[in-house]
Specification:
mainly alpha, about 140 residues, 4 helices, globular, two-stranded antiparallel ribbon, single chain
Length: about 140
């Protein structure tokens, strides 16, 4: 169940990032938070949420999970939290006058820019699982054996 929970997390976050990018580029529209991250659009945020929901549900179906409504809500929540984590990291960089969080991955905004949404969503998934199952086995809250 832990492996499935981790794959679920990756599917949601990666689908969110990919869908937000492509929908935002294709549709455009009003900026989401122009003073924090001028390239992000509201349409991209909505597209990312839909993409994250779809990615999470597709993985849940492939894994044979039966609680699709609960997992859909979790995927949607993780998608939104992932986008908030991305915006937070952008805000921190702007606050400190840095374009990139490091130079380890040239052209990608740094290592933290690659994992900002993943870190936020991982914490949220832990909390969601903890609430669903209790503190003993957090991964079992969403993906019981």
């Amino acid at each position: 169940s832990g492996l499935i929970a981790l794959l679920f997390l990756f599917a949601v976050v990666w689908a969110t990032d990919i869908a937000a990018y492509f929908v935002g580029r294709a549709v455009g529209g009003p900026k989401l938070a122009p003073s924090i991250s001028p390239g992000k659009t509201r349409s991209g945020a909505v597209g990312g949420a839909v993409g994250g929901l779809a990615g999470g549900l597709l993985l849940a179906i492939a894994a044979g999970a039966g609680n699709l409504v609960q997992l859909g809500l979790a995927a949607l929540t993780l998608s939104v939290v992932s986008q908030i984590g991305d915006l937070f990291e952008s805000w921190v960089k702007r606050r400190h006058g840095a374009k990139d969080s490091s130079n380890l991955i040239p052209g990608h905004g740094g290592v933290m820019d690659r994992v900002d949404g993943l870190v936020a969503a991982a914490l949220a998934l832990y909390v969601i699982g903890w609430v669903a199952a209790g503190a003993e086995h957090p991964a079992l809250g969403l993906f019981p054996n």
